[in-house]
Structure formats: structure tokens, C-alpha cells
Amino acid sequence: MYSFRKSKKGFTLIELMVVVAIIGVLSLLGLRLYTGQQEKAKNAIVKANCGTIQTLIQAELADKTVAQVITAINTLVTSSGIRNPIDGTAQATANYAAAGTTPGEPPVAPAASSDGEVYVYSNNDIFYINGNDAASAGTGAVYANYLTARR
């Protein structure tokens, strides 16, 4: 005769559903943290690019006049090899920022600048350097106070 016994091996459907739900919630939390870290990393690259351009300008100012540096700034930026961390393109020119609306006010990002792009503004003998952050659509700066290079 056959004896019909319930097998106690395996998991019930409810137990499996609970495990799947827990894994789903944990993966969503991890993905959210991961995307935030990517943005922070891209902003760090933009800051490093700003620092590179600042160093290049400062080095050029040690050997040349301000007018010569302004003339050669696009060559400096092109030869630096910096890349935009957002789209991977090489920065070919020093995108000039517009002057502030009142004297002594810091410059504002150029209207044509994109996320991750570094821009430079020269006012007499001072160069102001900044870049757009990774999620600003061209409106937010990575530095609250501009990096400067001066003779």
C-alpha cells in the first residue's frame, strides 16, 4: 500500500516570495547609492580638471605676460588632454565665462557650457577657473569659490 505523506523538503511559496522581496529592496537601495557615487566621482574629475588648468595657467604666468597667456590659453587647454567625464569628449577650448553683473562679482558660467565642462574667465591679471557639476544642466559650479591663477 501506498502511504501519502507530505514531504517536508523545500520551501513554501510564501517563503520564496519574502526572500525575493527582500532581495529586491536591497538591490534598489544599493543601486540608489551607486548612482549617487557615480555623480560624486564625476564631480571629482571636474574638480581635478579645474586644478589642472589652474596649474597650467599659473606655470605659463611665471614665464609669460598675461596677454600672452590669454592668447595661448586654448593651446594650453587642448594640450592638457583633459576630458569631460560626462560625455568623454576632449575639451578643445577654454570656454570663457561671462563677467559678473557688478564689479568684484565672480564670473558666471557661459550659456553654452555643458555638464562637466571647465570654464575660464580672465579679468585683468586674474584668471578664474571653475566647472559645471555632473547634474546641473550647465547651471551649477563644482566650486563655490572659484580657483584663481594670477601673476
Describe this structure in words.
The structure is a single chain. With 151 residues, the protein is α+β, with helices and mostly antiparallel strands. The chain has one domain (13-150). The chain has helices at 13-63, 66-80, and strands spanning 95-96, 118-123, 126-131, 147-150. The protein has a four-stranded mixed β-sheet with strand order 1-2-3-4, with helices on one face. Helix 1 (13-63) runs antiparallel to helix 2 (66-80). It is rod-shaped. The N and C termini lie far apart (101 Å). The mean pLDDT is 81.
Record the SSE blueprint.
Elements: H1 13-63, H2 66-80, E1 95-96, E2 118-123, E3 126-131, E4 147-150
Parallel strand pairs: 1-2
Antiparallel strand pairs: 2-3, 3-4
Number of strands: 4
Give the SSE order as H and E letters. HHEEEE
pLDDT average, as an integer?
81
Q: How do the strands line up in the largest sheet?
A: 1-2-3-4
Query: What portion of residues is helical?
Result: 40-55%
Poorly predicted runs are: none
* Quaternary: single chain
Q: How large, in whole angstroms, is the Cα Rg?
A: 26 Å
Please summarize the sheet with the most strands.
4 strands, mixed
* Computed structural class: alpha+beta
Tertiary shape: rod-shaped
